[in-house]
Amino acid sequence: MLVLKEFGLIGLLLAWSGAAVAVEVGDSAPQFSAPTLGGEGPVSIADYAGKAVILDFWASWCGPCLVAMPELERLSNALEPESAVLLAVSVDSDPKRAARFMRKMGVSYDSLIDTDGKIAAQYDLPGMPTTYVINPEGLIVARHVGFKPGDEAKLASAVNDVLSK
Amino acid sequence: MSFQSKSRLLLVMLVLGFVSACQTVAPWEREILAKDEMAWTEDPLAQALDQQVYFSKEGASGGLGSAGGGCGCN
Fold first, then answer.
1. Chain B residues with CB inside 8 Å of A59's CB?
2. Which of A32, A41, B39, B68 is the most buried (most CB within 10 A)?
3. Over the stretch A37-92, which tens digit does the pLDDT of each residue have?
4. How far is A71 from chain B (nearest CA, A)?
5. Percent of chain A with pLDDT over 90
6. Which CATH number fits domain A22-163: 3.40.30.10, 3.30.200.20, 3.40.1190.20, 3.40.50.970?
7. Would you call A13 an interface residue with chain B, using a CB distance cutoff of 8 Å?
8. At a CB cut-off of 8 Å and minimum separation 6, what does B36 contact?
9. Cβ–Cβ under 8 Å, residues A98 and A90
10. CA-based torsion, A132, A135, A140, A144: positive or negative
């Protein structure tokens, strides 16, 4: 009986420690809202209900994010706004630095800002960058961790799969 | 509570104390670790040359540093 109590105590403490569970393919996309880097918002993922969402977590200090941005820009430009949208979320601690980085990269899409990492923790990102493809029903249908040249084809394929259904 | 129970509880608390010390840095929290000044070496080219010499002498390679550059992508 005492052993059970001990394990119960351990479980309780581990749960209390806030060990998050990574969001996997097939899970519902956790809801969130955040301001944009431009100071507008807050924008909520629920605002895009009924549309496919490419949710990209990035940071100005992340090397592969630099590779991904021009490809995401191309992908974003190719999307039909009424059926799909690219939603970027920066985890930079300094929104100004993130905004400068976006200007330097010459991307036209806007980004949300998650300075305290709450949204990133909600999704328990396995790496940076992490990109999710979310279908119009709000389910995660693809997750891509990291980015290297050529990965844009995988993302585009996942988005096309969603849009063709 | 008996002495044995107290001892067990103390042991559990100690173990939990040690477990909590094994904290990893989440990928999205690696901003400071990703800074240039946090790199193991100031000059990656010089380090590569040093490693080339070292590995040639040793006749083996690998086992240096740690995976990833702090961005959590590797």
1. 28, 31, 34, 71
2. A32
3. 988 879 999 999 899 999 999 999 999 999 999 999 999 999 988 999 999 999 99
4. 17
5. 70
6. 3.40.30.10
7. yes
8. none
9. yes
10. negative
